[in-house]
Write a structure and sequence with these properties.
Radius of gyration: 19 Å
CATH superfamily: paralog of FGE (formylglycine-generating enzyme)
Low-confidence stretches: 4-19
Helix content: 10-25%
CATH class: Alpha Beta
Oligomer: single chain
Shape: globular
Mean pLDDT: 91
Structural class: alpha+beta
Strand order of the largest sheet: 7-6-5-8
Number of strands: 9
Order of helices and strands: HEEEEHHHEHEEEE
Largest sheet: 4 strands, mixed
Distance between the termini: 39 Å
Number of domains: 1
CATH topology: paralog of FGE (formylglycine-generating enzyme)
Number of helices: 5
Length: 276
């Protein structure tokens, strides 16, 4: 009888975890090489040594898509989230823009993004989690290998592809974001880890974070800073910004010049993974 009760309890726990993480992608625990890829000759100094640095990341679950306007609007309507800047203020902002409910929500600050995740029992990804998920097992510059990013792989500015807006390469010629999932996912089934919108992550920025913190298992460091890390190239950025190791950092509350580029996705976990 005792064994039956234990088995039932474990089954209920597994069902609860599955329900909580339904619709997400599980990323297995393990080491990966973080930072400057072996085939990348244009890394910034904050991307660490060429060839990458071994970093261990615990198991986590991540959204397969960037958070959409529609998803974020539901949170606003529930009274649990505050709206980001809107289309009426800036034409590059997707919130309240006609026909963009399935576009990634953008023009959003770090605090608003983190709050949305917390409302959904989640948080923004740790930077190391984000890169492990973006690489999807690849050690090359991009999840798909050596081939330089173009509009065939990502919604971006490739300097060649044109669309409905004259003399404009941003957003593959549309001068805006596209609907989520407009390009193929990476090998983990994650969409728009390159292109789309650049994504807020949890960490404060440090030039030497990979060597000083992440390689030593301190994935939530540093404790303070002035800028929050942004990962993944955006729809208005070129190939160099789309690499899996590219790091950028911005003022958490945002400012007018970065509104259209910033979005996010959330990470879900079965235990507190910030105490490291």
């Amino acid at each position: 009888m005792r064994q039956i009760q234990i088995i039932l309890f474990l089954n209920i726990m597994l069902m609860t975890i599955h329900s909580a993480f339904s619709g997400t992608v599980k990323i297995e625990a393990g080491f990966f090489k973080m930072g400057c890829s072996y085939d990348d000759n244009s890394c910034s100094t904050d991307e660490g040594k060429k060839g990458g640095t071994p970093v261990y990341v615990a198991e986590f679950y991540i959204d397969p898509y960037e958070i959409s306007v529609s998803e974020y609007k539901t949170c606003v309507e529930s009274g649990k989230c505050n709206p980001p800047f809107t289309f009426q203020r800036n034409k590059y902002c997707n919130y309240n823009a006609p026909g963009r409910d399935n576009h990634p929500v953008n023009c959003i600050s770090w605090p608003l993004a983190q709050n949305y995740c917390e409302v959904h029992s989640a948080r923004l990804p740790l930077e190391a989690e984000w890169e492990k998920a973006a690489r999807a097992g690849a050690n090359e510059r991009y999840p798909w290998g050596h081939i330089t990013a173009t509009c065939k792989q990502a919604i971006m500015d490739d300097g060649v592809t044109t669309g409905s807006v004259n003399d404009e390469f941003d957003g593959c010629g549309e001068d805006r974001t596209w609907a989520r999932g407009s390009r193929k996912p990476n090998q983990y089934g994650l969409y728009d880890m390159a292109g789309g919108v650049a994504e807020w992550v949890y960490n404060w920025h440090s030039e030497t974070a990979i060597a000083d913190y992440y390689s030593k298992g301190k994935l939530n460091k540093p404790d303070t800073g002035r800028l929050k890390v942004i990962r993944g190239g955006a729809w208005d950025e070129q190939a160099g910004a789309q690499t899996s190791s590219n790091r950028w950092a911005k003022i958490p509350t945002g400012h007018r010049s970065i509104y259209g580029s910033n979005g996010f996705r959330c990470v879900y976990y079965s235990k507190n993974s910030l105490n490291n």
